[in-house]
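Exercise: predict the fold of this chain.
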Amino acid sequence: MAYRINEKCIGCSLCARICPVTAIKGHLHSMYVIDAAVCIECGACGRICPASAIQDATGSTCTHLKRESWPRPEVNNALCMSCIACIQACPVSCLGLGPPDPRDPHARPVLTLPDRCIGCGLCADACPVGAITMK
């Protein structure tokens, strides 16, 4: 199930602007809608909505958070196997490979564009060894 927008929507367009897959459509000052077939359930729309008009896939109302409070991925290099699944899973391309450590020739994922990160956790979900946590 996808996220949905309820009647509390004030038509501010913040949700449509933050959606990484353009699943949200509407007109300014009118109620927006989420295309369930396109929604990837990243939750960015719910975190940015000032009117608490977004419900997650379980029907719970999402909580508005200031952008600086959104979770960010942290990579545990001791667990990471440099498979790049996290980089491929990121819908906003904010992760990249960092420089290799002189003691370890493998490059590890790092948050290269922190301002672009939407805190969705899809990178952590994609990690096959649990090396990424959202903090």
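Check your answer against the key: The CA atoms of residues 85 and 128 lie 8 Å apart.
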